[in-house]
Design a protein that fits this description.
disordered N terminus; globular; mainly beta; single chain; Methylamine Dehydrogenase, Chain H; 0% helix; five-stranded mixed sheet
Length: 415
């Protein structure tokens, strides 16, 4: 580990996404506790610099394994999953947010299995709250959820059954109140699963006819009369709203092409009353669809875009604009309410992580480790390009005024 900077500076508060929830593992100002932070929005008001010079790196830490999954942050700890591609072992890791020291690491043996060349044995993002952090990983033998306290002591481990799908596993868990919820859509027997976060015991299971391994993580939509709904995306089912307390489907609309097998990789996002979901095939077709429901089971498609839209990256919403950062590097700025395209420009590529937004600046890191920063505005303005000098497949995390970036073998802290 090389410590470039170790000084402390005042911490910034996070913007709690488009809607503010006391769910999905948020502890307020210091938590980026799940994939893409508060309710999966990817949005923060921390003032991360657009251009990174040597003095902006607080520290750089060599990790005990490789991986594609993103880090999460709770207080002064960063959690992420590493893996060993030679043995398939999974390695949950905890790193000190202030100095980059590896506080603990644990190794779990697993049988080797094939996966897509752009996947790895550590492609999932954990989820945390004040008492625990929960990791997920999947093999042909079993889908594992494992919970640890912040000191690394295991609280429980759950076996949720085998995983069928040649591309390898990649679904990340989220927390909702007393539940850990995971999308178990796969090529074989599929389901949405919730377990008790204190014991790992199943609370509810919703059977699914998925036919395709999915990688998206659910978000929370504020429904009528204060009801909160978990929203999932999947090729076969489309976009689904679930009563998380009861484990019941409230509404569902099939909005993706059923003639060619597609895959939901990017996660849904919330934009006011709209749910925006993505799905696609490697080449085409690909879709971004915005839905609104009436609270009584009726669902209306508000708009869709099927040109230069992302397959792997999750969209990001800033104020009344949606930014679609397509895998090959084309960015489209869209009006939230109508889907009207404001601009569409080629920026760079290819990218496998999702963009995040800090204080009106959108950050996205391509496969080659180039971090491009644009202004979240009605015209393309590239603010900076930063070179991380290593392959990167992950999405940054932002907490305490610091951006944490996971490359293939390292974790970096930028302030």
């Amino acid at each position: 580990m090389s410590n470039v900077m170790k000084h402390r500076s005042p911490r910034s508060c996070l913007l709690a996404g488009i809607l503010v929830f006391n769910v999905i593992g948020s502890a307020g100002a210091e938590a980026w506790a799940r994939f893409r932070g508060p309710n999966g929005s990817g949005v923060s008001d921390a003032d991360i610099p657009a251009k990174w010079d040597a003095e902006n790196y607080r520290w750089k830490t060599e990790l005990p394994g490789i991986g594609h999954g993103s880090p999460v942050v709770w207080g002064d700890k960063v959690f992420l999953l590493c893996g060993n591609e030679d043995t398939a072992a999974r390695i949950p890791v905890c790193v000190g947010a202030e100095d980059g020291e590896i506080l603990w690491k644990l190794e779990f043996p697993a049988l080797k299995h094939r996966h897509h060349k752009f996947n790895s044995v550590a492609s999932t993002t954990p989820v945390a709250d004040s008492e625990r952090v929960v990791f997920s990983w999947g093999t042909q033998e079993k889908l594992t959820l494992a919970a640890f306290d912040h000191s690394g002591s295991k609280q429980w481990e759950a076996d949720l059954g085998p995983v069928k799908g040649g591309h390898g596993f990649g679904a990340s868990p989220v927390m909702y109140r007393n539940l850990v919820v995971i999308n178990n859509d796969q090529d074989g027997a599929s389901s949405l699963i919730a377990v008790d976060k204190t014991s790992g015991k199943k609370v509810w299971v919703i059977p699914r006819d998925s036919e395709r391994l999915s990688y998206s993580s659910p978000v929370v939509l504020s429904g009528p009369e204060g009801r909160e709904e978990l929203v999932f995306t999947n090729w076969r089912h489309g976009i689904t709203g679930v009563d998380a307390g009861k484990g019941e489907v409230l509404w569902e609309k099939s909005v993706f092409n059923q003639e060619k097998k597609e895959r939901a990789i990017g996660s849904p996002v919330i934009a006011g009353e709209l749910v925006i979901g993505t799905c696609g095939f490697v080449q085409n077709p690909k879709h971004v669809v915005a839905l609104k429901h009436d609270g009584e089971g009726g669902v209306e498609e508000v708009w869709r875009i099927e040109r230069s839209v992302p397959h792997i990256p999750t969209p990001i919403v800033h104020e009344n604009r949606v930014f679609l950062w397509e895998d090959k590097g084309t960015v489209t700025c869209v009006e939230v309410g109508s889907g009207k395209v404001i601009w569409r420009e080629r920026v760079y590529g290819p990218t496998f992580g999702s963009p995040v937004c800090s204080n009106g600046r959108i950050f996205s890191i391509d496969k080659n480790g180039k971090a491009t920063v644009i202004e979240a505005a009605d015209e393309l303005k590239v603010l900076a390009e930063n070179d991380l000098d290593e392959t990167c497949y992950s999405t940054p995390a932002i907490s305490g005024g610091t951006m944490f970036v996971r490359t293939y073998t390292r974790l970096l802290a930028i302030r």
